[in-house]
Design a protein that fits this description.
80 residues, Mth169, Chain: A, 28% strand
Length: 80
């Protein structure tokens, strides 16, 4: 079983990486981009066969290590 965790800064938190990418895209004349937010993706291979238990375990991982929940949001996708 695989878990995909997408982590991004919460709305309202300054994303300096996103601003730098947006500035670079502007410099390259990609004018249609209004905003850029940069995040990270973590892919976990899990031994579990129970999707609910796997999601609960990955949620615990996010809350304790993978995401800084003060400034970051996360979304978990479990793939059987």
């Amino acid at each position: 079983m695989k878990a995909i965790v997408n982590i991004s800064l919460k709305e309202g938190v300054l994303d300096s990486q996103g601003k730098a990418v947006h500035h670079a895209l502007d410099a390259l004349k990609f004018d249609s981009v209004d905003d850029v937010r940069v995040g990270k993706q973590i892919v976990l291979e899990l031994a579990s066969d129970d999707a609910e238990k796997a999601k609960a375990e990955v949620t615990e991982m996010c809350e304790s290590l993978l995401a800084n929940t003060v400034i970051e949001d996360y979304a978990i996708e479990i793939i059987a």
